Amino acid sequence: MPLSPRVPDLVALDLLLSVVELGSLSQAAKMHGVTQPAASSRIRYLEKLIGVPVLMRTPNGSLPTPSGSEIVEQARAVINAAHRLDDGITMLLGRRNSRLRVAASQTVAEYLFPQWLPALRAQMPEAAVTLDAGSSAQVRESVLAGRAEIGFVEGPHAPKGLESKTVARDRLVVVVSPQHAWARRNAISVEELADAALIQRESGSGTRTAFECALAALVPGWVSAPLLQLSSTTALKNSAVRGVGPAVLSSLAVKEEIAAGTLRPVIVTNFEAKRFLRAVWPKGQRPAGPARALFAVAQRTRDATPQS
Predict the structure, then answer these.
(1) Taken in order 65, 67, 71, 72, is the CA torsion positive or negative?
(2) Average pLDDT in the 226-243 region?
(3) CATH topology of domain 10-94
(4) CA geometry: angle at 242 spanning 236 and 246, to 5°?
(5) Mean per-residue pLDDT for 24-36?
(6) What global pTM score does this model have?
(7) CB 99 within 8 A of CB 130
(8) CA distances from 211 to 48, 56, 99, 112, 161 (A)
(9) Is 99-303 a domain of CATH 3.40.50.80?
(10) What are 79-116's pLDDT values in tens digits?
(11) Whether the Cβ atoms of residue 206 and residue 308 lie closer than 8 Å to each other
């Protein structure tokens, strides 16, 4: 039920209590950090709202009128309740600020989150952080279900039903073992890539979705038919290293293997699969507490693609 328009706001009631307790309008104004004219104006507004005078100005200070004394008693109960509400909100925020549940796609979880965590710790050392890694589709479900305050996904499109903001860019690369025939080629064609049996991530993965969208745009009628589907980036890399077949992975994920020579990048003529890494959170909300701090850290990533 809506309050009557005669009910003063908490600020006015709190000021009235201070005037009565201190016996001085000027001292009450000082306590509340306002000028005396502003405090006087606030009390006059309160009296106009209620319809009766609440204070008497005397040579010895300000005293409540008989009606004012009754208002003060009622106001004291209201202000005490407001303080209890404020204490409860403080406790709630304290609990929220003491933990952070994050859901992230595997590329972000394995290769970017470890870079972000020290900066987050420096800002909020008391926050207990839990990270759940999965596919971009799983991250979306976790955020929608409230199991994570913030998520990070890959892929060519922003997930439906969530607010999102790009925090970094990445590109996909085709890699093979040094023994694979493509390792001895300067480049392969898009058609050769489309005809090849590839090792790919599982359906719902941002990596796979980005790759399939990019290749389908260049090869009309192409249908993905993976040689092997794996839900782990590490398993994908190990299979490629052992010569099972070509793999499509984030440039972040294969940086060390390419440097060590255990995997070779394959140039595909006229093919480039760039993608965006996005932070996501529930619609109509804004990241708060540790989630907001992590979002700010992630935004400083910009281009996540390793430079050659």
Answers:
(1) positive
(2) 91
(3) Arc Repressor Mutant, subunit A (1.10.10)
(4) 55
(5) 89
(6) 0.63
(7) yes
(8) 69, 78, 35, 20, 23
(9) no
(10) 888 778 876 666 666 555 578 999 999 889 999 999 99
(11) no
